[in-house]
């Protein structure tokens, strides 16, 4: 406090001094202050950037409790939509899962229901007797149990092409008989969980063992209530196709308001669903100005586009084959790249909607990189993992706080922050 009082006294003296001496005095006094600001800002920013990892001294008797682990966006969303609890663990019902991939937020205020063992046994029996269908999850409704690991597994099915699952199935099918048992399936789920959550590879076996403690509806559906059945690839492939078709039909009905066709502006709204609305203002403006009213898109056209979005990686590769890097593409090039990536063609109606929506400068071309970024947000339903703040973020914070401190010390509001 004495140093700051001295600084104020000197500053007042300098302001009364001749102009020639004023700058020198201010520099002599302000320099230590700015240096102190740098050091102080570093401490502040280190705390801001690393506040979750800073050690805290606690003077207490007994064992120290470990800090609660940070929850991922997917885990948070799972807990939000999970409506039942069994053995103190949250679980989704099939209805909860459909809501979680269709809705941005929970639109209901229901207390989580605590299940008993007889209720869970009844759910498993129902699942074991269920037949393959494109309305399986809607038929089961709230009469089912889905764990967090299975939630990640089902999300993966919705966002990946079928070829990727065939490879995973073959890797787990050790004897090559096109069959997988329950233990192998649990490993598959936890490999997917490891991929999503970056868990250590050596923890997968333990996770698989732990997962067998509580059977779920998905396990009963694939392997029977006692877990003794075998899952063939044809059945697994049918399940993947049915799940994708069921979610696609639900989303189509949601945005078409239950009609057999979807208006082009409804399709545009679906495209921008789950994306950052602040960054998409120009797209919303394009939708209002360029897309004519009264034209519709059928479910088959909609489903073909969904198939395309599940092949974005292949589409990116095919785009490099038909156009120069980072160059805007025309509709013919875009259509050809989709054909290469998926083997199917998008209708002129869908292509025209996409181009009018994402063509920001009106030259009948679009930036495929920007388009793909928006589509990735759409496919991942707003759950794209954000990069952690690193060393560069720390120094940006230091720079900002230091400039702010220098501005206050010198009283110069012209210093940009």
Structure notes:
This protein has 417 residues and is mostly helical. The protein has three domains: 66 residues, no CATH class; 173 residues, no CATH class; 110 residues, no CATH class. The protein has 20 helices and seven strands. α13 packs across α18. The longest helix has 31 residues. The chain is globular, with a radius of gyration of 29 Å. The relative contact order is 0.09.
Mean pLDDT: 74
Per DSSP E runs of 2 or more residues, the count of β-strands stands at 7
Order of helices and strands: HHHEEHEHHHHEHHHEHEHHEHHHHHH
Please report the number of helical segments. Answer: 20
Low-confidence stretches: 17-30, 43-60, 196-212, 385-417
In the residues, how many domains can be counted? Answer: 3
Distance between the termini: 27 Å
Gyration radius, in Å: 29 Å
